[in-house]
Amino acid sequence: MKALLISLLAVIGSQAVAQTTVPFDSSAWIYEGKVTKESFQGKDGIRLTDGRITLKDNTFKNGIIEFDMTLSPDRDFPGFGFRMQDKDEFEHIYLRPHRVGNPDAIQYIPIFNGQDSWQFYYGDGYSTTVNYPMNEWVHIKLVVRESQAEIYIGQSTEPSLVIHQLKREPKAGRISLENGAPITTRFANFQYTKTDNPPMAGKFKPEAAPQLGTLLNWQVSSTFDEKLLQTDYTLPQAVASRLTWSNLTAENSGKLNISRIRKRNEEANTVFVKLTIVSDKPQVKKLDLGFSDRAKVYLNSRLLYAGHDEFLSRDYRFLGTVGYYDAIYLDLKKGPNDLWIAVSENFGGWGIQSMIADQSGLTIKP
Question: Which terms are listed as keywords in the entry (predicted)?
């Protein structure tokens, strides 16, 4: 009798997390862009271009999201958002059908303050190789639990992308389906399940500890126009004197995502990040640096370095991804040394990655 009761409770529990199917003609959606009801290859759905549709339900935190979609081989970035707080704050998954078979055919990024960040987040845990069928239905499934998620493509029982660490705080929000281009993308059979314990098959990795010498603690200024730095070879005091500052901690990788606390626009696309290096004697130390999109490095108010790593700035294949690709040798005086880095952004990721591997004789503070 006890065993029967346990079985009945298990059945009731499974029903409590049943899937919710939401037709696309339901009032449960908010429509933006061009949405056309359409039947294609035996499935009723919508054709979506130049916009998104957003579910009004704002309580999805953990669980499963599933739908079917069609893809075109043209350059496009259709996908979906989840845990949306608003249009500028959400977790984002999108597909690159024109990159089918390549290591970046699918992408996860966090959206902070409306800013893309694919130049920051790439490779294992963020993007991977997928082979999509074109112009026919393919099933997409997300499973998410707290700070971990996995994506299934087609009927595979193994996840195509394992997201080891979602970058935003786990917080309930809305779900959206998106296609920002005029290229045809269709969606059908949308459903979702809210449950705190969805089954997951991925092999998740813990976040690695910071490398020795990683610079984690910075101050970040208010935003200003990059043009104010174009003619000076020393730190412009007229700009510096009117800035306000906030503390920001980098991720363990050393990547400092400025968009977490700052919103850029065309007239205010730059911030300074700064820290103080106290040296016990005059000495030279190597600063390893990555950045997106442009950086100017000042030591004790003197300009030492300027770099440009924006998308396509070197050739048609240059992505501008952030890594330790540059090095600067800091000629430190005894005592405090002020390190300021101006970081300017177009799109794709706003911030730096930095390390001073040899910190002997140094005290570093924001």
Answer: Signal
